[in-house]
């Protein structure tokens, strides 16, 4: 792995802090007046991908005009913050932080702007691994490319915003990127994944499986979509952290706590079918890289994650132990 300079690490922390506060952006939004039966009404007009969207704001009166002016003032005030964030993103990229591909950034920006991560979504898998590297101040020497963007959500955990929802299917299908629902083996089950037509790139929604084994998709109210249930995903999602991706003016997302991510990757490597042997190797590699950084800088995080793992039951621990045998002895979490 390559360690990022102190200046680059500081730029990351500054960008993360800056992104905690919304910088209102009116790009692509306009206000239009419509005459209906001799009365004028005001609407906001924008596009989601290529689809035009208009939403009713109110009658064209003094009160509505005050709302319009207030919104425009927020856009103007946010411009300074957006420029500052864009400069920090540039500093991160110039300092060697991993850049998102154009497609990866475009999709992640769409999800972040829609509120997916405010409503409890957590980025997992390889995209999370790459962001965890930046969070820890390193760039992995082998950054695995991926065409999968997995979003996990635990409906039993509180979210930042709990009185509204987003419609994941509509957001993706209206994006103009060509997303379509992926059919399920059981045609009676709703889709849990979306794929760009003619490409391999996909977005999948996942959620913890609790109780008896059941592969039936789980309806996620805050996303108005179905998620595939996976055993032991609750361990990964119990502690999450904010992270920022170096794209555009910074994309604020949620990722798993790094030590839990590493231990969960060990377990995941043992739960994959034989047809996914290459992915199992990648799982163990990613766990090893994260453990290597934490063992040197914050071994207490590994101890805490291990204590939590022991509460997951014998099966979880047996699978983790089996995978840990493939790590260098000095990185085996059970013998640290």
TrEMBL record:
<keyword id="KW-1133">Transmembrane helix</keyword>
<dbReference type="Pfam" id="PF12281">
    <property type="entry name" value="NTP_transf_8"/>
</dbReference>
<protein>
    <recommendedName>
        <fullName>Nucleotidyltransferase-like domain-containing protein</fullName>
    </recommendedName>
</protein>
<feature type="transmembrane region" description="Helical">
    <location>
        <begin position="116"/>
        <end position="140"/>
    </location>
</feature>
<dbReference type="InterPro" id="IPR058575">
    <property type="entry name" value="NTP_transf_8_dom"/>
</dbReference>
<keyword id="KW-0812">Transmembrane</keyword>
<feature type="domain" description="Nucleotidyltransferase-like">
    <location>
        <begin position="105"/>
        <end position="298"/>
    </location>
</feature>
<keyword id="KW-0472">Membrane</keyword>
């Amino acid at each position: 792995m390559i360690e990022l300079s102190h200046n680059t690490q500081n730029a990351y922390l500054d960008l993360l802090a800056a992104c905690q506060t919304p910088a209102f952006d009116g790009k692509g939004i306009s206000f239009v007046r419509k005459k209906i039966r001799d009365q004028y009404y005001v609407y906001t007009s924008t596009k989601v991908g290529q689809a035009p969207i208009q939403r009713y704001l109110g009658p064209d009166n003094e009160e509505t005009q005050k709302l319009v002016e207030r919104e425009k003032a927020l856009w103007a005030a946010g411009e300074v913050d957006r420029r500052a964030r864009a400069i920090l993103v540039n500093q991160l990229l110039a300092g060697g932080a991993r850049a998102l591909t154009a497609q990866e950034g475009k999709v992640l920006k769409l999800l972040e702007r829609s509120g997916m991560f405010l409503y409890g979504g957590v980025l997992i898998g390889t995209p999370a691994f790459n962001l965890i590297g930046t969070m820890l101040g390193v760039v992995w020497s082998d950054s695995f490319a991926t065409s999968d963007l997995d979003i996990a959500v635990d409906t039993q955990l509180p979210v930042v915003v709990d009185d509204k929802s987003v419609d994941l299917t509509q957001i993706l299908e209206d994006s103009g990127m060509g997303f379509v629902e992926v059919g399920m083996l059981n045609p009676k089950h709703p889709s849990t994944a979306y794929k760009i037509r003619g490409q391999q790139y996909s977005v999948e929604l996942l959620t913890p499986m609790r109780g008896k084994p059941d592969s039936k998709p789980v309806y996620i109210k805050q996303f108005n979509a179905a998620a595939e249930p996976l055993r032991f995903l609750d361990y990964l999602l119990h502690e999450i952290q904010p992270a920022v991706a170096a794209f555009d003016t910074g994309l604020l997302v949620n990722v798993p706590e790094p030590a839990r991510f590493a231990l969960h990757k060990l377990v995941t490597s043992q739960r994959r079918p034989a047809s996914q042997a290459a992915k199992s190797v990648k799982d163990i590699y990613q766990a090893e890289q994260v453990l290597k950084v934490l063992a040197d800088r914050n071994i207490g995080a590994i101890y805490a994650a291990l204590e939590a793992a022991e509460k997951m039951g014998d099966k979880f621990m047996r699978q983790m132990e089996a995978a840990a045998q493939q790590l260098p002895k000095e990185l085996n979490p059970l013998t640290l």
